[in-house]
Design a protein that fits this description.
Order of helices and strands: EHHHHEHEHEHEHEHHHEHEHEHEHH
Bound molecules: 5-phosphoarabinonic acid
CATH superfamily of the largest domain: Glucose-6-phosphate isomerase like protein, domain 1
Distance between the termini: 52 Å
Number of helices: 16
Number of domains: 2
Radius of gyration: 22 Å
Strand order of the largest sheet: 1-10-9-7-8
CATH architecture of the largest domain: 3-Layer(aba) Sandwich
Shape: globular
Structural class: alpha/beta
Number of strands: 10
């Protein structure tokens, strides 16, 4: 099934949404040409070659045979796609387990990962397009040392580096030492890199079917009718919400395994749109958990937000409830109750005028998660352009980096 966009509970006039339709369609046409810098991701799912996919799969197979744990070292767009998809797929089908490092500066955290290297059969996959990111560099330097002291020279074959094809300290080091490498294309930014080796390789190691994941993205990318009749309206709705004064988009998920898709959305939407004093602030809630903390605010608080809910139609696992003291629950399926909870939330929130978009996918498997990620990437690119910002740069991240660097004695 193709992903569906439901705007029935939007509570704003269709005229407002339709106003920039032609402009949005034109933006999408231009994006599909991928002629603008940093837009190679648009046609990437379709342009990945069979040889490239085979190379990822065969290297992944080899790494799978070597380790119980694959430590994925990276930050931001260089690890969130992997973490989000692996968690959503529940791809940890046995061995190896994916563990993440390089996404924080906590000595406490990294020390635990070093101990893991000592205890478990380990391989490393370091992902950094620039090859110079501080968090990634620190974690890699530390974990590499732990690997060489455990495995000696054999560590080299347990390390895979995914980085720019030519530049950066990681590329240089890989050439010097002989790590196996994959390249991140120059014209794909971190948060748009879900269909590069930086995500595909660790997912393949975790046992995900990357062909299905790529196929889902490819099919939705090429479905022009979907974009023109359905997909584009989510981008237009977001633009209208923003124009109407909404400043927050709450991404809502009804299963904890989708929490990292929420984090991935936060980065994609936040880093793409938040510039020039503009943009919707993206945040994530997991229901029903957060209804017991934020439900009050959503229902009656400051109405600065709209909601984007993800509905997943089918799950492999379910529980039928035993006889319960709450009689009306007895014998019901828990997934059915979860679905009814969503309908209840939509009814209660719609009643007080909260705009709600529902994105529906068939299941949490590779094909549909691939569609979902590609869909969000295209949507943010279109809305970003509609609101007049460049969705592919991130100039604002330099300020804090430079302040940290100064304090650590970095020469400018
Ligand atoms: O989306 C982005 O561009 C960023 O989040 C980067 O992915 C992140 O800063 C890591 O950069 P790099 O891959 O160069 O280490």
């Amino acid at each position: 099934m193709r992903l569906k966009v439901n705007l029935k509970n939007l509570n704003i006039g269709r005229g407002k949404i339709d106003k920039d339709y032609d402009k949005a369609i034109e933006i999408m046409r231009e994006l599909r040409q991928a002629s603008e810098p940093m837009t190679e991701w648009v046609r990437q799912p379709a342009s990945l070659t069979g040889d490239f996919i085979l190379e990822i799969e065969s290297t992944a197979e080899e790494i799978r045979s070597l380790c119980e744990v694959l430590i994925v070292i990276g930050v931001g767009g260089s690890y969130l796609g992997t973490a989000a998809v692996a968690e959503a797929l529940e791809a940890q089908r046995g061995c190896p387990q994916l563990v993440y490092a390089g996404h924080n500066l906590s000595g406490n955290y990294l020390d635990k990962i070093v101990k893991l290297v000592q205890r478990k059969e380990t391989c490393l996959c370091v992902v950094s397009k620039s090859g110079n990111t501080m968090e990634t560099r620190i974690a890699f330097d530390v974990l590499k040392e732990a690997m060489y002291s455990k495995y000696g020279d054999e560590a080299t074959k347990r390390i895979i580096a995914v980085t720019d094809s030519e530049s950066g300290s990681l590329r240089e080091e890989a050439k010097d030492i002989g790590y196996r490498t994959f390249a991140i294309p120059a014209d794909v930014g971190g948060r748009y890199s879900a269909f590069t080796a930086g995500t595909l390789f660790p997912l393949a190691v975790a046992g995900a079917n990357i062909r299905e994941f790529i196929q889902g993205a490819k099919d939705i990318a090429e479905d022009i009718e979907f974009w023109e009749k359905e997909g584009v309206f989510y981008a237009l709705a977001r633009e209208s919400m923003y124009a109407e004064g909404k400043s927050v988009e709450v991404f809502e998920f009804y299963d904890p395994s989708l929490a990292l898709i929420g984090e991935w959305c936060e980065q994609l939407f936040g880093e793409s749109e938040g510039k020039d004093g503009k943009g919707l602030f993206p945040t994530t809630m997991i229901f029903s958990r957060d209804l017991h903390s934020m439900g009050q605010f959503l229902q009656e608080g400051n109405q600065i937000f709209f909601e984007t809910m993800l509905s997943v139609r089918n799950w492999d696992n379910d529980i039928i409830l035993p006889t319960s003291k709450i009689e009306y629950l007895s014998g019901k399926s828990l997934n059915e109750i979860n679905q009814i909870a969503m309908e209840g939330v939509v009814a209660a929130h719609s009643a007080v005028g909260i705009p709600i978009v529902i994105i529906e996918i068939e299941d949490n498997k590779e094909y549909n998660i691939g569609q979902l990620l590609y869909f969000f990437m295209m949507v943010v690119a279109v809305t970003g352009k509609l609101i007049g910002i460049d969705p592919f740069n991130q100039p604002g991240v330099e300020a804090y980096k430079s302040e940290i660097g100064k304090r650590l004695g970095k020469k400018s």
